[in-house]
Specification:
- By secondary structure, this protein is mainly α.
- It has one domain.
- It has 5 helices and no strands.
- Helix 2 packs parallel to helix 4 and helix 3 runs antiparallel to helix 4.
- It is globular and about 55 Å long.
Protein backbone atom coordinates (compact mmCIF):
# COMPACT_ATOMS: atom_id res chain seq x y z
CA UNK A 1 0.00 0.00 0.00
CA UNK A 2 1.47 3.40 -0.94
CA UNK A 3 1.62 6.40 1.35
CA UNK A 4 -1.28 7.89 -0.62
CA UNK A 5 -3.65 4.91 -0.20
CA UNK A 6 -5.57 3.71 2.78
CA UNK A 7 -8.09 0.91 3.16
CA UNK A 8 -9.84 1.79 6.43
CA UNK A 9 -11.08 5.39 6.30
CA UNK A 10 -14.26 4.79 8.33
CA UNK A 11 -12.86 3.83 11.74
CA UNK A 12 -10.94 5.62 14.46
CA UNK A 13 -7.95 3.39 13.69
CA UNK A 14 -8.29 4.37 10.05
CA UNK A 15 -8.29 8.06 10.97
CA UNK A 16 -5.18 7.62 13.10
CA UNK A 17 -3.43 5.76 10.30
CA UNK A 18 -4.45 8.42 7.75
CA UNK A 19 -3.09 11.13 10.05
CA UNK A 20 0.16 9.17 10.31
CA UNK A 21 0.41 8.96 6.53
CA UNK A 22 -0.23 12.69 6.26
CA UNK A 23 2.59 13.37 8.70
CA UNK A 24 4.86 11.01 6.73
CA UNK A 25 4.10 12.85 3.49
CA UNK A 26 4.62 16.21 5.19
CA UNK A 27 8.20 15.19 6.04
CA UNK A 28 9.09 14.39 2.42
CA UNK A 29 10.68 17.27 0.50
CA UNK A 30 8.83 18.38 -2.64
CA UNK A 31 11.83 17.55 -4.84
CA UNK A 32 11.62 13.93 -3.67
CA UNK A 33 7.88 13.71 -4.38
CA UNK A 34 8.40 15.23 -7.83
CA UNK A 35 11.34 12.94 -8.63
CA UNK A 36 9.43 9.87 -7.46
CA UNK A 37 6.42 10.75 -9.61
CA UNK A 38 8.70 11.24 -12.63
CA UNK A 39 10.39 7.88 -12.04
CA UNK A 40 6.98 6.18 -11.88
CA UNK A 41 6.04 7.74 -15.23
CA UNK A 42 9.41 6.67 -16.67
CA UNK A 43 8.99 3.12 -15.45
CA UNK A 44 5.48 2.85 -16.85
CA UNK A 45 6.64 4.24 -20.21
CA UNK A 46 9.53 1.77 -20.33
CA UNK A 47 7.14 -1.13 -19.74
CA UNK A 48 4.81 0.16 -22.47
CA UNK A 49 7.82 0.39 -24.80
CA UNK A 50 8.52 -3.30 -24.16
CA UNK A 51 11.70 -2.53 -22.22
CA UNK A 52 10.71 -4.30 -19.00
CA UNK A 53 13.13 -6.81 -17.55
CA UNK A 54 10.62 -9.58 -18.14
CA UNK A 55 10.54 -12.53 -20.54
CA UNK A 56 7.12 -11.31 -21.74
CA UNK A 57 8.18 -7.67 -22.16
CA UNK A 58 7.34 -7.65 -25.86
CA UNK A 59 3.79 -8.76 -25.03
CA UNK A 60 3.43 -5.72 -22.76
CA UNK A 61 4.38 -3.27 -25.53
CA UNK A 62 1.74 -0.64 -26.27
CA UNK A 63 3.14 2.34 -28.16
CA UNK A 64 -0.07 4.36 -27.93
CA UNK A 65 0.08 4.15 -24.13
CA UNK A 66 3.84 4.81 -24.18
CA UNK A 67 3.28 7.99 -26.23
CA UNK A 68 0.80 9.29 -23.64
CA UNK A 69 3.12 8.53 -20.73
CA UNK A 70 6.17 10.08 -22.40
CA UNK A 71 4.23 13.22 -23.32
CA UNK A 72 2.92 13.54 -19.74
CA UNK A 73 6.45 12.99 -18.41
CA UNK A 74 7.85 15.68 -20.73
CA UNK A 75 5.27 18.21 -19.58
CA UNK A 76 5.82 17.27 -15.95
CA UNK A 77 9.61 17.61 -16.14
CA UNK A 78 9.38 20.86 -18.12
CA UNK A 79 7.07 22.36 -15.50
CA UNK A 80 9.02 21.01 -12.53
CA UNK A 81 12.56 21.81 -13.70
CA UNK A 82 12.65 25.43 -12.49
CA UNK A 83 11.36 24.32 -9.09
CA UNK A 84 13.70 21.38 -8.51
CA UNK A 85 16.89 22.77 -10.05
CA UNK A 86 19.20 21.41 -12.71
CA UNK A 87 20.92 18.89 -10.41
CA UNK A 88 17.61 17.02 -10.13
CA UNK A 89 16.06 17.91 -13.50
CA UNK A 90 19.14 16.91 -15.52
CA UNK A 91 18.94 13.17 -14.84
CA UNK A 92 15.17 13.24 -15.35
CA UNK A 93 15.65 14.94 -18.73
CA UNK A 94 18.26 12.31 -19.66
CA UNK A 95 15.81 9.53 -18.82
CA UNK A 96 13.08 11.27 -20.80
CA UNK A 97 15.34 11.62 -23.84
CA UNK A 98 16.25 7.93 -23.63
CA UNK A 99 12.55 7.02 -23.65
CA UNK A 100 11.86 9.36 -26.56
CA UNK A 101 14.65 7.75 -28.58
CA UNK A 102 13.46 4.24 -27.63
CA UNK A 103 9.97 5.19 -28.80
CA UNK A 104 11.35 6.40 -32.13
CA UNK A 105 13.28 3.15 -32.54
CA UNK A 106 10.24 0.99 -31.66
CA UNK A 107 7.86 2.84 -33.99
CA UNK A 108 7.17 1.37 -37.40
CA UNK A 109 5.86 4.73 -38.65
CA UNK A 110 8.32 7.46 -37.76
CA UNK A 111 7.10 10.79 -36.43
CA UNK A 112 8.27 13.98 -38.11
CA UNK A 113 10.93 15.86 -36.12
CA UNK A 114 9.21 17.76 -33.31
CA UNK A 115 6.07 15.59 -33.51
CA UNK A 116 7.25 12.64 -31.38
CA UNK A 117 6.02 12.02 -27.85
CA UNK A 118 6.78 14.95 -25.58
CA UNK A 119 8.58 16.92 -28.28
CA UNK A 120 6.09 19.79 -28.03
CA UNK A 121 7.67 20.35 -24.59
CA UNK A 122 11.28 19.35 -25.27
CA UNK A 123 11.76 20.25 -28.91
CA UNK A 124 12.95 17.69 -31.48
CA UNK A 125 14.99 14.82 -30.08
CA UNK A 126 17.71 13.13 -32.08
Amino acid sequence: MSTFEHEDHGTAAGSDAAAGHTRDIAEVPAVEVISTAAVHLMSAAAVKLGLADDPQAEDLKDLDEARKLITALAGFITAAAPEIGSQHAGPLRDGLRTLQLAFREASLIKDEPGKGPGEKFTGPVS
